[in-house]
């Protein structure tokens, strides 16, 4: 397994109902993986940072950013 470069609790938005939820994020290599909690038992999703077309400051929420890929915009 690739070692963790960084890990932290972040708030992410759900794209279906657009509510904000706390998630445990781990950066490994160039992948930002997010889990339900810090036990890292249930992977909720992965964002390949190399596929990002743009990473921009999101002024709608404090300390927020958008990661834009061809597939979608991750908040």
Topology:
Layout: E1 6-13, E2 20-28, E3 31-35, E4 43-48, E5 54-58, E6 64-68, E7 73-74
Antiparallel strand pairs: 1-2, 2-3, 3-4, 5-6, 6-7
Descriptive report:
- The chain has 75 residues and is mainly beta.
- It has a single domain (6-74), classed as Pleckstrin-homology domain (PH domain)/Phosphotyrosine-binding domain (PTB) (PH-domain like, Roll).
- It has no helices and seven strands.
- Strands 1-2-3-4 form a four-stranded antiparallel β-sheet, with no helix packed on it.
- A hairpin with a 5-residue loop joins strand 5 (54-58) and strand 6 (64-68).
- The chain is globular, with a radius of gyration of 12 Å.
- The model has no long low-confidence stretch (mean pLDDT 80).
- Residues 1-75 form the PH domain.
- It comes from Xenoophorus captivus.
Quick overview:
With 75 residues, this protein is an all-beta fold. The protein has a single domain, classed as Roll (PH-domain like), CATH 2.30.29.30.
CATH level-4 homologous superfamily: Pleckstrin-homology domain (PH domain)/Phosphotyrosine-binding domain (PTB)
Q: What Rg do the Cα atoms give?
A: 12 Å
Largest sheet: 4 strands, antiparallel
According to CATH, what is the topology?
Answer: PH-domain like
Please state roughly what percent of the residues sit in beta strands, choosing from under 5%, 5-15%, 15-25%, 25-35%, 35-45% or over 45%: over 45%
Low-pLDDT runs = none
The ordered string of helix (H) and strand (E) elements is: EEEEEEE
CATH architecture label name: Roll
Total count of helical runs of at least 4 residues:
0
Q: How does the helix and strand content classify structurally?
A: mainly beta
Specify the overall morphology.
globular
What portion of residues is helical? under 10%
Quaternary form: single chain
């Amino acid at each position: 397994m690739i070692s963790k470069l960084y890990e932290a609790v972040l708030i992410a938005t759900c794209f279906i109902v657009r509510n904000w939820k706390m998630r445990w994020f781990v950066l490994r290599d160039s992948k930002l993986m997010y889990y339900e909690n810090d036990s890292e038992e249930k992977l909720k999703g992965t964002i390949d940072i190399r596929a990002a077309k743009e990473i921009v400051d999101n002024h709608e929420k404090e300390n927020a950013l958008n990661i834009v890929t061809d597939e979608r915009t991750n908040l």
